[in-house]
Amino acid sequence: STDPMDFSFLKTLDGDIQISIPNLESGSMAFKNMTGKIHIANGILEIPQLVAGAYGGSLTVKARLSSQKSQPPSLTIDIKNADLTNIIPRSNERFQVTKGTFNFSTNLTSQGRSQFEYIKNLNGPVHIDVQNGVITGFDLQKVTQKLNQSNSIAGLLSLLGNAFQGGQTKFNSLKGSLMLENGVARIESMKLLADGAHVETTGKMNLPAYTMNTDSLITLTEVKNLPPFHATFTGPLDNPSPNFETAALQEYFMNNVLKGVAGSIKGIKGGKPQDILKGILGVGGEQGSTENAAPASNGSQQNTAPSSQEAPSTKPGQEAEKALKGILKGLF
């Protein structure tokens, strides 16, 4: 909200308030056995320490709020060993960390005259540590599985259609350090370690504008010789759009998959390249059917078979390989 906030009423109060609340729920937030003290004097409200049970873990809060604009408010939050399962609200966001043991700490300061200005002027460090969690929205394990299915080009290419669309990725740890400056969170370090994949992320999240722009370097550790590739996420914080830089995947396909089928291409005598490709890709018949097809009539052979005396203009399979590269390029 941009509505003005006035804390001058604190000047009229002086005293101590003891807090003891067995259960407290507000929306998706739930706390148990909350205890603490509020001290108010000279127009300043201080919470020396407030503790509570939070989602199977513990919450500690320290805060300071002054009626004087020259004294910016401060907030310290520590969450330890909480269960993320019930913390994240269920909605249509594409990417979310929905499970895991959650640790979080921050020490923030700000100033302003409204909620929006307080968000805009947030400053301070944020540390996140999630263990044994799940991220929804993409499936890194599925990517690894598809890339290791080198028996079929079609199987490899199919990952581009749906591997990064939905699903979930289980991970061992997600650790991040961010620095907030004037409401913009700059990622100093963020690493995700999952079975078969490592992800390192850099970038920024603009809280007042509610947007993000990040770049993740993804390394699939169980795919031999595959170089890391990038994934960028831009747009609203709750539903960013992914864009995958596939140059590394193209290079991998060209150098590994094409070589893997080069022998079968070269072993096929006659026939048009597009017909050969249909067989390799599993379209219009079984792979290798060109070799096993029944001989055509003599007349047909004379019209289609190349002369044994005529030197081919290209090496065997070269034309088919060129066409296949064109198909691959068009798919990325």
* Pattern of helices and strands: EEEEEEHEHHHEEEEEEHHHHH
What gross morphology would you assign? elongated
The number of helices is 9
Strand content: 35-45%
Number of strands: 13
Largest sheet report: 13 strands, antiparallel
Unreliable spans are 282-317
Radius of gyration: 30 Å
Assign the structural class, choosing from mainly alpha, mainly beta, alpha/beta, alpha+beta, or little secondary structure: alpha+beta
Mean of pLDDT: 77
Helix content: 10-25%
Distance from N terminus to C terminus (CA atoms, Å) equals 43 Å
Biggest sheet strand line-up: 1-2-3-4-5-6-7-8-9-10-11-12-13
Structure in a nutshell:
By secondary structure, this protein is an alpha+beta fold.
Describe this structure in words.
It is built from nine helices and 13 strands. The chain has helices at residues 115-120, 140-147, 153-157, 159-162, 247-266, 273-281, 289-292, 298-304, 318-331, and strands spanning 15-26, 29-41, 44-54, 57-66, 74-83, 96-109, 124-136, 168-181, 184-194, 197-206, 211-220, 229-236, 241-245. The chain has a 13-stranded antiparallel β-sheet. Helix 5 packs antiparallel against helix 9. The protein is elongated. It starts with 14 loop residues before the first strand and ends with a helix.
